[in-house]
Amino acid sequence: MKQTKQLSEPLSGWLAQQPLQPLFLKLLDLCDVAAPYIVDRDQQVIHWSRGAEQLSGLNAEDVTGKPCLQEYVITEGGDHQKQLIKLVQADGHEIELNKMTHVLHDQEGVFAGGLGLLLPASEQSENTTSPKDSRAMPDSGKQGFQGLLSRSPAMQAVFQIIQNAAETEATVLVRGESGSGKELVAKAIHDLSVRRNAPFLAINCAALSSSLLDSELFGHVRGAFTGAIKDHSGLFQRAHGGTLFLDEVAELPLELQAKLLRVIQERNYIPVGGDRSIDVDVRIVAATHRSLREEVKNGRFREDLMYRLRVVPIFIPPLRERREDISLLIWHFIQQHNAANFRKIEKIDPQAMRALLDYAWPGNIRELHNVVEYAFAVGRGTTLRCSELPPEFRESRTALPQAMQNRPLSADEESAAIRQALEQSNGRVTQAARSLGMSRATFWRKRKSYGV
Description:
By secondary structure, this protein is an alpha/beta fold. It contains 17 helices and 14 strands. About 35% of the residues lie in helices and about 15% in strands. A hairpin with a 4-residue loop joins β1 and β2. The radius of gyration is 27 Å and the shape is elongated.
């Protein structure tokens, strides 16, 4: 059992004579200026003080008895933790708070929840990052880093790699799912580099046929093919001195991969139909959602080109792995659309916010932006409600596929279902167990047996 602080003898004797519930409630009232709150073992809010209401902008009646937002979670390993958190209030205003947590245990020593305390952050803690270049990290946390918004530790590491890579001429390979912001990363590298005043050009290698892509990248001379009535400067020539972003580079045909390798190694190329080489000075930033190593194994990508492209690999985590960014991005896009003066959203209904936070976001930030745009198009009024979200947010989700619900599950299937249920419930055990039709005790037992 976890040891607790020993009470002095006078205090112990005095407490034995007091009715503890009224005393506890009076203490909570006195602490309102410091904004305490309490969550149970399932991360349900069981007390939300007036101070917490004022600092967070969330009303007690809207959050009490419901799962707390990710920012307020208190885990079993979070005893005596102090954390700086950034919150976007209902009016879109961002504030920084210090969150201090203490874990609570019941009489048997079992984790029973936690007590959180919110305090306004000091001015000194507003900017915890001190990059070498003042252009790299704007003063406002809302602006994030070079147009990339995130409060995720994983993304802070990405920001640092971007800045370090920008100070070199190394070729960069950005890997990330569709909609995760790969082109923004490439643009940030360009804008922070010595090439910032030269062109930044981009092309999607999956969008054109092999012949068109060859001409678009390397240009062609007059008469090279039917319709080539004049010389055409390719992207490499137009990006001279700057940066060329090759999106979906894994889709590049093998014959063009050899030509790209020559440009990287020799700094020159021959246009389609040409007979002389053109010298070029271009930095390449490539991107893909595929594993280039797997493409090499399958014979679809040149190994030598892979090594040339991934001198500095950067991996962008999907949005589902950095859920602390969801509310930040939602309000960022809401404010963008509010500026159009068609509709002004000032609040998000708690049920709608919960649906947004629990969604898996397979399309990442691009999908989130589209969802906000959908809400502005179909809804009216100053509050974003569940009915204004796309249909997939209103469909009931079950962790088990329908085909599995009509037969006994194998150990592997049941283990996978438990993992999926935990992911969909954002780690909330009671909610995950309920989605699988299990009791909490059964869920814990199976989870332990599978090592999930």
